[in-house]
Amino acid sequence: MTHAIYPTLFSPMKIGRREMKNRIAQAPMSVCYADGNGVPTPAMAEHYGRRAQGGAGMVITENLAISVSGRQMPLQPMLKDDSHLDAFAHVAGEIRRHGALAIAQIVHAGRYAGPWTEYEKARRLAPSPVPFELLPGKTVTPAEITEDEIEQALSDFANTARLAEKAGFDGVELHGAQGFLVSSFFSPVMNRRKDGWGGSFENRTRFALEAVRRIRAAVGRDFIVGIQLMSDELRPGGWSLDEATSLIPRLEEAGIDFAVPVVSTFETLKTPENAGLFARPTFQHEEVRAIRRFATVPIFTNGGIRDPRVAEDLVARGDADGVALARPLFSDPDWPEKVREGRVCELRFCDCTQATCLRTQLTGSRCESWPKAATDAGYFGYQA
Ligand SMILES: Cc1cc2nc3c(=O)[nH]c(=O)nc-3n(C[C@H](O)[C@H](O)[C@H](O)COP(=O)(O)O)c2cc1C
What we know:
Blueprint: E1 13-15, E2 18-20, E3 24-26, H1 42-53, E4 58-65, H2 85-97, E5 101-107, E6 125-126, E7 132-135, E8 138-140, E9 143-144, H3 147-166, E10 171-176, H4 181-186, H5 201-218, E11 224-232, H6 241-254, E12 258-263, H7 285-292, E13 300-302, H8 308-316, E14 322-325, H9 327-331, H10 335-340, H11 356-359, H12 372-377
Parallel strand pairs: 3-4, 3-14, 4-5, 5-10, 6-9, 10-11, 11-12, 13-14
Antiparallel strand pairs: 1-2, 7-8
Bound molecules: flavin mononucleotide.
């Protein structure tokens, strides 16, 4: 039955060959509830299951590393072989049990790989050795990725997607934003290569398109393949919105079923002109609107969407096909159900002035606004 107040938000849609029950996705958030070897804990499965129980139609996990060289955080999940597939199957199972599509975000961290102390010795891979400030006052220079390492990363993406399918996920989202490996190839600032992987638009987008083709070839036709796409690097001379709009039809040809456009990289977020971006309402929506005009697959809008009336409007007027909420569902997993039931005044928001979720990633993310039971447990699962 059509919802009286939010008819579009609570209408189903097709993603690839599968159905999403509404237009609300949980956007990926690295909560880091895996163990030191990247194996999901029961808390991680409950955390994601709880977001599905709260009514999201799709739950996209935090970024799962495809390899040791592509890992960033000490407690980040890593899916590179089938030695702990049961733990990943537990995560997928908890999401699907509550009627949501289970999507695993997959990443090679590239220039941001970690743990950072170890990577002072290891090869931190990027298209070109362009120095950047990793931490305040600490500049590092990544290593130029070789042809063999490119081939390895592409086959690792396909392998992780195949493993995610085996674990029972409905699909994967390739991380092609924020300055991680895929998006660093896009950027003329981060990618100064003179070979077939750099220079022209065709060359800078080759790695992403090849990754999508390899993933598509490794999984069944019903398995969903999405991408988080850098929509604008927000830096002079960097990857532009025009390039992102040109890329979207090619990504569709390569086999994507949905996309989530996202602006900036970790570096460009720190520039004075982009200060405070994350706190602004609907802060990357104009880029989404522009990209959707060139797309035929569903496009999700993300970033600074808290008010359900705003979410309904963005989708109803056709700017996007769905909304992806990260922090709102971290502080309140019941956002979709409360909205659907007309309990909007009960929504719990975090004011985010402390950015506690980011500051606590090294030990497992928390939120200032959680009820005591969740704070005591260290995560917001079924018991909170
Ligand atoms: C603590 C934290 C962790 C995040 N981890 C990821 C991640 O693993 N992958 C990703 O693509 N985006 C990640 N993001 C970005 C979110 O998906 C989202 O784009 C951003 O928070 C804006 O959406 P929101 O206003 O709904 O929170 C993270 C954001 C936060 C605050």
